Amino acid sequence: MTAHSPRPLLILIAGPYRSGTGDDPALMAANLTRLEEAAWPIFRRGHVPMIGEWVALPVLASAGADVFSPLAADVLYPTAERLLQHCDAVLRLPGASSGADEDVRIARERGIPVYMDVEQIPALGG
């Protein structure tokens, strides 16, 4: 990239993870897979995909906890909020999710673009 080329965006993928699963680990894993399926299209458009659980789950594990632990409330949403201090955009996937809705609210409050479809994300040349 030259000094005048646009830089890749760090894009937070927001959507259901725990919501609507009844805390069923298989359903949560399926939701994470769905979030991760958006990573390649974002990368292919020249950007860097990010999912809050990619950060929060190892943080919880290193604290000896998991998403069912009381500590999860102090890690899951705060991780996304901290990530949004570094992200350039949010991709909001379909599905009910209070956490993803909060990500969108914070992004809009901070003037960060929110995309509802990966096709809305501008592709970088090259």
- Please state the average pLDDT score: 94
Rg result: 15 Å
Count of the domains: 1
Total count of helical runs of at least 4 residues: 5
Helix residue percentage? 25-40%
Record the strand order, biggest sheet: 2-1-3-4
Count of beta strands? 4
Q: What is the chain-wise order of helices and strands?
A: EHHEHHEHE
**Architecture, CATH level 2?**
3-Layer(aba) Sandwich
At a glance:
With 126 residues, this protein is α/β, with parallel strands linked by helices. The protein is 40% helix and 11% strand. The chain has helices spanning 25-37, 39-44, 52-62, 76-83, 98-109, and strands at 10-14, 48-50, 89-92, 114-115.
Short key terms for the protein model shown above:
single chain; 126 residues; alpha/beta; Rossmann fold; 5 helices; 11% strand
Describe the structure.
By secondary structure, the chain is α/β, with parallel strands linked by helices. It has a single domain, classed as Hypothetical protein PA1492 (Rossmann fold, 3-Layer(aba) Sandwich). Helix content is 40%, strand content 11%. The protein contains five helices and four strands, in the order βααβααβαβ. The chain has helices at residues 25-37, 39-44, 52-62, 76-83, 98-109; strands at residues 10-14, 48-50, 89-92, 114-115. It has a four-stranded parallel sheet with strand order 2-1-3-4. The chain is globular and about 45 Å long.
